[in-house]
Amino acid sequence: MYRKGVFFIPLTIVVFVGSCQNTTENVKQTTNEEVNAVPTVYEEKDLDTAYFASGCFWCVEAIYESIKGVQEAVSGYSGGKEKNPTYQSVGTHAETVQVIYNPSIVRFNQLLNAYYGSQDPTTFGQEPDFGEHYRSIIFYQNQQEKMLIDHYKDSLNSSGKYSKPVITEVKEFDKFWKAEDYHQNYERLHPDQPYVRSVSRPRLERFKQAFPELLK
């Protein structure tokens, strides 16, 4: 398993590109907090939540932020056993994004379409990030969501689109742990960071070209 740490080095030193684990600034570590399905600030009756993991959460967050009807996308950790995971000790959790959306504007199955259309779901991670922390997971919160997820996954496997089986994990939602503040909106706030330029931004642009009808 390959997981890189945060480099606390001067900006004049070369930063290796190759993982969303590389940052170029000193960052203050913050305590993670467990959040409910809908954070207090978004307790509006017309909003719902969904939880997706597919590689680096910087990339996934930026993709969902670009979709019309999505109020907010929050980077965090889910799918593991440990309490209070952090960036340095994520344990068995995967980098996960909480998507807060208006179901009257964008439907759950459209979020599913965006999920599969923005990654390779046959690999245990996304280039260049592979391993347990970057695995592909969709978290369901009720049986209707599970039915939609299972049907979509089965349809992809039977379509012949991929030469290998879709290995996306379908897991019942338990808890979501919000990531440290410096991870939030990382792609937007750090456009010149090497990983963002070489991985996050190209992945976002590929998504936008493939799904113009979903964009804000």
Brief overview:
The chain is α+β, with helices and mostly antiparallel strands.
Write the layout of secondary structure elements.
Elements: E1 34-35, E2 48-53, H1 57-65, E3 70-78, E4 94-101, H2 108-117, E5 125-126, E6 129-130, E7 137-140, H3 143-159, E8 169-172, E9 176-178, H4 186-189, H5 194-210
Parallel strand pairs: 7-8
Antiparallel strand pairs: 1-9, 2-4, 2-7, 3-4, 3-9, 5-6
Helix pairs in contact: 1-5
Provide an overview of this structure:
The chain has helices at 57-65, 108-117, 143-159, 186-189, 194-210, and strands spanning 34-35, 48-53, 70-78, 94-101, 125-126, 129-130, 137-140, 169-172, 176-178. Mean pLDDT is 84; it is low at 1-17 and 23-43. The chain is an alpha+beta fold and 216 residues long. α1 (57-65) crosses α5 (194-210). The chain is built from five helices and nine strands; from the N terminus they run ββαββαβββαββαα. The chain is globular. The chain is 26% helix and 19% strand. The relative contact order is 0.22. It has one domain (34-214): Peptide Methionine Sulfoxide Reductase, Chain A, CATH 3.30.1060. The strands form two sheets. The chain has a seven-stranded mixed sheet.
In CATH, what is the class? Answer: Alpha Beta
Count of DSSP helices?
A: 5
Q: How many strand units? A: 9
Strand order within the widest sheet? Answer: 1-9-3-4-2-7-8
* SSE-based structural type: alpha+beta
| Average pLDDT number | 84
Please write the string of helix (H) and strand (E) elements. Answer: EEHEEHEEEHEEHH
Distance between the termini: 36 Å
How many structural domains can be distinguished in the coordinates? Answer: 1
Mind telling me the C-alpha Rg?
A: 17 Å
